[in-house]
Amino acid sequence: MTLIKSISGIRGTIGGAPGDNLTPIDAVKFAAAYGTWLKEENQGKEKLKVVIGRDARISGAMIQGLVIQTLTGLGIDVVKLDLSTTPTVEVAVPLEHADGGIILTASHNPKQWNALKLLNHKGEFLNAAQGARILELAEAEQFEFADVDYLGKVTLNEAYIDIHIDEVLNLPLVNAKAIKEARFRVVVDGVNSTGGIAIPRLLERLGVEVIKLYCEPDGHFPHNPEPLKEHLTDISELVVKEKADFGIVVDPDVDRLAFMGEDGEMFGEEYTLVACADYVLGKTPGNTVSNMSSSRALRDVTEKHGGNYRASAVGEVNVVALMKETNAIIGGEGNGGIIYPELHYGRDALVGVALFLSLLAEKNIPVSELRAGYPSYFMSKKKIQLTPQIDVDAILKEMEEKYKNENISTVDGVKIDFPENWVHLRKSNTEPIIRIYTEAKTQDEANTLADKIVAEIENLVTVN
């Protein structure tokens, strides 16, 4: 059982002992720390407001109740969206003129996990300094709660998924007319979370026939919720069986997006951003950003359209910061996270679906043909489980030294750029693991490189 405290929030497994897991005590403490930080940031403001939404995890209602009552106990008003998506909460914060937001989700983690993901008044994730301050406040536990006459109030607003869809459909580049005329037939895997509400609703507004798979938002994930090929055999088979045009897969909080071709083959999670960027850049040329664990294919497509590509450290807040710095018109992460600033600076599967459908409708070609038209790279994503005895920093330093004659970046872990492929090693922000990502011109090369690096790291662990 695990509790991970980081600058991006608190994440852990439900049950067990306080301080070791995400228990009610930990949820209250970190909600109180966040509310106290908001008060520090808004001194002199009479009343603060926070937007709260959650995915469909089994523990969601419990954690939501604890967080909301803690904030109202601090005298902060709460707009409760209840079942929602991460990007929906991000959209709602500025529309509500709120001072912040909290999304209760552990993203792609299994059902025993939950988390508090923290937003600022723009509906964007906090920066490192802000996150560090909240961790300080949580550690000190010096909270001042409101008198009985000044408790916060709770307002329920369950309309925001529809409002979010309206905002997406109002984007100039979303070609709703072409999508409706294409008469797509699509399978949606909502992993029994809130994607099962939001994605079918968006598609139906666009005139798409929806075949639902695991769209009951009860939090009982029918497969590993990370949208990777090995977890998606059911939708692969159903797309072929139903003769659907393609399949759509999202993670539990709907900020990651993957597609399945009409042939039941993965479009490639990395290529979600590549395709959406290709469409946007074809209409409005500009720059792009992704993190350094993402495919080189985005760089190739960006340069094809005459733009400049930059790579940030891993983490949405880092991608967003570099997007703002370079005036990027689209960006995101290779895990299927699309950030389209025309709507908001956050990964958003709803925006990704609308842009991808617009591209496909205008090109009028099968998904498999669209994928074949992009530069062909293959990735391997592996992980090594950590124990408290493993000195990750020392291991990364030794790998850096071993490959010092290659093109190396240490902005985020260690990335080694070889002429024909690359490897990125980093400690995860969300799980007790080392991530090993590789990319090459064939899957065999990517796998071989990953296995070689994993063996070298495991050897270092044994030696140390």
From TrEMBL:
GO biological process: one example: peptidoglycan biosynthetic process
Alpha-D-phosphohexomutase alpha/beta/alpha domain residues: 8-143, 165-264, 271-374
Alphabetized UniProt keyword annotations: Isomerase, Magnesium, Metal-binding, Phosphoprotein
Residue span, Alpha-D-phosphohexomutase C-terminal domain: 396-455
PROSITE patterns: PGM_PMM
Gene Ontology MF annotations: magnesium ion binding; phosphoglucosamine mutase activity; phosphomannomutase activity
Cited InterPro entries: A-D-PHexomutase_a/b/a-I (IPR005844), A-D-PHexomutase_a/b/a-I/II/III (IPR016055), A-D-PHexomutase_a/b/a-II (IPR005845), A-D-PHexomutase_a/b/a-III (IPR005846), A-D-PHexomutase_C (IPR005843), A-D-PHexomutase_C_sf (IPR036900), A-D-PHexomutase_CS (IPR016066), Alpha-D-phosphohexomutase_SF (IPR005841)
Cofactor(s) it depends on: Mg(2+)
Superkingdom of origin organism: Bacteria
Entry EC number(s): 5.4.2.10
Keyword match Cytoplasm: no
Recorded GO CC terms: cytosol
Broadest EC class assigned to this enzyme: isomerase
Family under the similarity heading: Belongs to the phosphohexose mutase family.
Protein name per Swiss-Prot or TrEMBL: Phosphoglucosamine mutase
